[in-house]
């Protein structure tokens, strides 16, 4: 029994870490621009697929990963520059439609640049399962959790200690005031998208050896990442991470103990329940209503 | 400002009109024979539709190069339904009413096929489906045929193999897709006929990335002797990898949904020892010379792989069979008269295709029996025939 | 022509269009597309009331559409109820459900509301796929045709008139609603919820009311679609369809009932037109969505109106 529970928790943790990274991407963009970027999942896809191509072309794993992350960041920045910037000031629903259009566009491009098949990325350190208390975990899962933790730590320092990080935060609190302080708000927005995209790409690369990657791998992950971000409270980094982990573990336990068919539904039911009692998510900022 | 708005403004409607004209202009000259197809070239069922589309294009080109059929050129009119049954329906209507095709070959998924069936029946046009579920031809519909083996046959082939190995307690793990559910239902239905007991029945979601939870439950099921995974796409690969990760030392069967080299490539060495029922196409070169299918499957395999530089797929093979059945029927009756062609398709006997030897009848609109499926096993990273 | 307000004029124009369209529709395929546009338009008109006028959002409306379709299909095909009765019962059921879930969900705002409606839609979608004994699962189920007074309604022309009539009625209803006290209350809500409450408007009641109305519009269209196609699949209740519906409303112009109809027409036609592009279809579709929203952020119809106003000057 304990072994089974351990297995479920380990699985949930791995999946949850990925959701957390995607959710962080949502949170960063939302913070900077109040836009929900429905193309976030596509950054995950770009990360994985570009890595596949580069490895195919003969590059060593590390170089392929680095370049893939940069490529995704470039895509993110392009998205901001060509799609979000021109539509500044439009209503939130309009912006949502734009990002949805962008996600369709990116997926369409993916089928043209690559193909519609599934692709493999080699595991970072082999596939020999590791035994932990009667349960097994793939070495790749350790990479996923490890690197996710590292990234969260680095992000914390970035936003808390570096000048650029603090500038981005300032922009999210009050763009007008930030601008008055001499911060180039447009550039901060640009950077946020790049950063978010890089995060998504890392998530995609980390998980690809376990789950394979393809042109439409971003759809479900994007959706779950969004759900996690909302669960944790939009705009809160800590919330995004916690939301992702809770979602992953809830799914895993739900599938294990209740019903594997309704697994996805269970996750959403939990989110709805949380929102019912805490309308701004777990750590969300309470909205101020101007009359 | 206004001028800029104006010209930008009228560009869109003009573009729309041009597109409307282009896309709905009745398709080409009267003299061609039109093969209508609606396939899932994009979307979740893309690896069904993509090789099907390519196969149809390739062989129509070949047939035309060899002089066409009945002295006329063949023309493919195909639409991509992205795996959406509603779109499949609309495109089927378009093929029948607008493009006025002579025969329908298509419906990559069961959902798309079933949505199109009422239209084909009402318009009285022969329709050869490329989808798997047994419900397509059972009960028999006058104008509807199919080329792929049914999911029920796949279950039966696996059960026969289990009987050979004297195993009776089977665990099922399947996805929520149409193919998965249909095959699972058929397996549950016919299991008692083969004295197979289903001891566990787990499911996973379409986009799931980890099935260790479900496999752990199976592992802990008392007396389980073998596992069967009806599914296709990403799911079975992950199940296979998880299977190895959890060190489940049990005989493991997959379905014909993953009968491809792709599956072995993606699953890596976790695929060793996995068995599944598949068409002879996968092990074309390993067939003995005396095998009646050898010539056809080797020929198709080489043609496809040369033309597209990608591994052959059994789904593409089904499209080949569908096209050839239709063409053969037209040649036999000497015209494209829909009712006559339908009768000729129904009367097909001894046609050697990539899926098997086809013998249709008024009560059997698929024409394959259990011997059309071969039991394959992954051995040293390649598909081999299980004797 | 004092009685010819822009709204009445628009309705008259719609009526004329709908009556005249059959002259242009050459074959059954064109009729099918027209009928699909009509049904989508009905859903969009309802959704527009929620998004455009009440200022809420729903990323799960396809769930109601799916419930309407499957409810009617199951009651008539499995339980043998006459289709007309099945449709009525289903829609009453959906209204009650919307009333039940509307209250807690509409307490949420903005993106949280979006997530909640998304979640609701996904849960409905999963339930439809999983309960395959009832719904036929992912492969779908057949639906018996609609029969009125014992006569089965088949044939494109007949359905065209039924759908056209429904659309005109839906638009008239929506326009009426907007100009009624309820509608004004909604628009006040949209401007400022606190302000509206101060003026004595029961915000929750108004929001839930519109939510229920828009849900019924969607489920009624779903029921009709089920009996028209004769075959339904869970795809119609999916998240993607919900997004498509929102895109249609936004594309055509929020806060514009006629805009919703235009948006439905445009985005239903677009995939049919883009088939010429084969593998470039997805890219072009995404690009069109993006470009339209970037350059016409208020939607097609309002931008058109603005342009015409400018030309007039």
Query: Can you give the mean pLDDT of chain B?
Result: 88
Uncertain stretches of chain B: 1-11
Evaluate the radius of gyration of chain B. 22 Å
If interface size is counted as residues with C-beta under 8 Å from the partner's C-beta, which chains form the largest one? A-C, 48 and 49 residues
Strand content range of chain B: 15-25%
**How many helical elements of chain A?**
11
List keywords for this structure.
heterotrimer; A: 291 residues; mainly alpha; two-stranded antiparallel ribbon; 2 strands; B: 387 residues; alpha/beta; Rossmann fold; 2 domains; 5-stranded parallel sheet; 4-stranded parallel sheet; 14 strands; disordered N terminus
Descriptive report:
The complex is a heterotrimer of chains A (291), B (387) and C (313). With 291 residues, chain A is an all-alpha fold. Chain A contains 11 helices and 2 strands; from the N terminus they run H-H-H-H-E-E-H-H-H-H-H-H-H. Chain A is globular and about 60 Å long. Chain B has 2 domains: 33-149 and 297-368, Rossmann fold (3-Layer(aba) Sandwich), CATH 3.40.50.2300; 151-278, Rossmann fold, CATH 3.40.50. Helix content of chain B is 44%, strand content 16%. Chain B has helices at residues 2-24, 46-65, 85-98, 110-123, 151-164, 178-190, 212-219, 234-245, 261-267, 294-308, 314-333, 338-346; strands spanning 33-39, 74-80, 103-106, 127-129, 144-146, 169-174, 197-203, 226-229, 252-254, 275-278, 351-352, 357-358, 374-379, 382-385. Chain B has a 5-stranded parallel beta sheet with strand order 2-1-3-4-5, with helices on both faces. A 4-stranded parallel beta sheet of chain B has the order 7-6-8-9, sandwiched between helices. A 3-stranded antiparallel beta sheet of chain B has the order 10-13-14. The longest helix of chain B is centred in the N-terminal third of the chain and has 23 residues, at 2-24. Mean pLDDT of chain B is 88; it is low at 1-11. In chain C, the strands form 2 sheets. Chain C has a two-stranded antiparallel sheet. In chain C, strands 2-3 form a two-stranded antiparallel ribbon. Chain C is globular, with a radius of gyration of 19 Å. At the A-C interface, helix 4, helix 9 and helix 11 of A face helix 5, helix 9, helix 11 and helix 13 of C.
